[in-house]
Amino acid sequence: MVLGEAHLRNILRPPPADPTNLPPNPPHPFQKSFSFYLRQRFLKHHFPLVFGYGVAIYLFMGIDSARNNAQQASYEKAISEGHSPFGHH
Description:
Blueprint: H1 5-9, H2 29-32, H3 34-80
């Protein structure tokens, strides 16, 4: 097909519609229901990441809690023995 032949054969697309009279775009199902999006897309694709973050946060909270409890116990032990709790003589 040579340049301009589409004009001659009248096989061009019709001109674009008037943008003021276009019907509204239907919403995507993910836009209509957040729970549908979570089930269909987010958890399917990101479950390992979310689960990993949850486990990591849980473990670090446990480690931090154990460290804090040990620090508190050492502080109370030093106070009960009459020493400075901050390591000074």
